[in-house]
Design a protein that fits this description.
Two copies of one chain form a homodimer.
Chain A: H1 4-14, E1 23-24, H2 27-33, E2 36-41, H3 51-61, H4 64-68, E3 71-74, H5 78-90, E4 94-99, H6 104-112, E5 116-120, H7 124-138, E6 141-142, H8 149-165, E7 171-175, H9 180-192, E8 197-203, H10 208-215, H11 239-246, E9 247-253, H12 255-269, H13 275-286, H14 288-291, E10 295-300
Parallel strand pairs in A: 2-10, 3-4, 3-6, 4-5, 7-8, 7-10, 8-9
Antiparallel strand pairs in A: 1-2
Chain lengths: 316, 316
């Protein structure tokens, strides 16, 4: 079981490889929520996302013999870049299985970090089969994007830094996709700030976590449709029990509100965040009655965006 | 004469009203310059620009009787917003003379900070005449955007924080328009890091500072044409002698390179900077032979951008 000790160990292990990201505040954004918001800027993390924390923790947890055979995963998102970078830092090979339909910019980024890309058909079955084949052939260690205790512990270190820097938070918010960041965050908050509530946010078009919480069991994400493309996946089996125990609420929010929150954050905070990062702030604005006067920590998950295709400029 | 004591006093005076902005680094951007670059993020400053430092210093330097009559300036840029905000913080009126052709978004921002806007024809003569009329009628204190010792001292506090946080810099870079930021930066560096060189950068399409340095006298900016709209003005009479004494070089750079540097900064550093902020990094990339192995501080001046009109999307 992953707990606060594993999260503290992860923080020590990954410290040489990550940025201690700044916590930013903005008066205008506070006014929209009616409380004081402390943004933990994981968009300013290495590879542009909190995923670097979990990936670094997983890769640097491996014993030398295992590490030497390399690591592998299937991901078209930030975990792919993070694992590629972490492997490069350890000096071991990384193989990333990506759907052939993944954006060229993402493939370039992964290749730029020195990983080998193996393309597959854009289905979950094809991803898993291709990954199995890679693992069998190379002996690489499979590092799941979220359903992995080393990943959960690594992602929990963002909240560890946030709580260390900002006292007396009433609420800590994180977005939820597979639940790696959320479960790590919830464990950290429960251990170190037991008076604070962990609240998650997710897109209405990918609301499997809210439905899973309501049902008391994992409801897989079916045909998710949202601009927040980092939050499409279903909850992991290791993540769900932690979330069920330690997360006070999961708020859902429409894509339009996500895009508005994203643009407002760029405009007033002067930072580049991806749509998945804007979901918490969008939800906080809609729940301002509940947040009035609160001190709220929000983990901004990442900033990897195609600057030639911004969502407020797209015909949707 | 403004010197390091005035800059230190300014830092103390304005501390309650400004952000101590983070210093960010990025491996990818380092590689483009061949050195290690420490970006002082004044785009994350209040009102989105370093201008808040000088404006706060000027406004909070006034004695109560003078302050009560208010402050005034002519500006359509970041100084207007900064002065409006600083006056609001002190609880005194601000009047901003703006050309009637100024973008609506800038007028809204200034009005949003509670200032009164007086419109004028878009000529320097009309600006000055309108401002004179305001000052005569209200008794407001005119706070020049850059040709003012209180402003110079305030702007110098960004470099003060940078040098405090980052030891052993070889070079400190700032963009130059009127010279407020550059002169304050150069004074701070000369006093506290005498082994470091202050180097300025400006757009090739507004290269009056480089020409002034070469000529040994102020050459006014005539018909400047550049995407870096914060750097159009001519050097101030109080700024030029400081720059002449303490600035080692002024590098000019084409708009295309500025836009490339701006986009790269957004993409890899995940921060929103305005074109004027990208000029130093653009110049640093072009001068990498001279910067190889150096530790370089770059002051990112601001992040006020129209997100619906990004320069890499415009037909130019």
């Amino acid at each position: 079981m992953v707990g606060i000790d594993e999260i503290r160990n992860a923080a020590t292990r990954i410290a040489p490889y990550i940025h201690r990201t700044p916590v930013l505040t903005c008066r205008t954004l506070d006014e929209r929520v009616g409380g004081t918001v402390f943004f933990k800027c994981e968009n300013l993390q290495k590879v542009g996302a909190f995923k670097m924390r979990g990936a670094a923790n997983a890769v640097f947890s491996l014993d030398d013999a295992t590490a030497a055979r390399g690591v592998a995963t299937h991901s078209s998102g930030n975990h792919a870049q993070a694992l590629a970078r972490a492997a490069a830092l350890r000096g071991v090979p990384a193989t990333i299985v990506m759907p052939r339909t993944a954006p060229a910019v993402k493939k370039r980024a992964v290749a730029g970090y020195g990983a080998r890309i193996v393309e597959c058909e854009p289905t979950l079955a094809a991803r898993e089969a291709t990954l199995d084949e890679v693992v069998q052939r190379t002996g690489a260690a499979f590092i799941h994007p979220y359903d992995d205790e080393r990943i959960i512990a690594g992602q929990g270190t963002a909240a560890l830094e946030l709580l260390d820097e900002v006292p007396r938070l009433d609420v800590v918010m994180a977005p939820v996709g597979g639940g790696g960041l959320l479960s790590g965050t919830a464990l950290t908050v429960a251990a170190l700030a037991p008076g604070a509530r962990t609240i998650a946010a997710e897109p209405a078009g990918a609301d499997d976590a809210a439905r899973s919480m309501a049902a008391g069991e994992i409801i897989p994400s079916m045909d998710p449709d949202t601009v927040a493309d980092g939050l499409l996946t279903s909850l992991g089996t290791r993540n769900f029990p932690i979330i069920r125990e330690h997360v006070a609420a999961i708020w859902t929010v429409a894509d339009e509100a996500i895009i508005t929150a994203m643009k407002l954050t760029w405009e007033r905070m002067k930072i580049v965040i991806e749509p998945s990062s804007a979901v918490c702030f969008a939800a906080a604005m809609e729940h301002r009655d509940e947040l009035e006067g609160c001190r709220i920590g929000i983990i901004l998950s990442g900033g990897n965006v195609d600057l030639d295709r911004l969502p407020w400029q797209e015909k949707r």
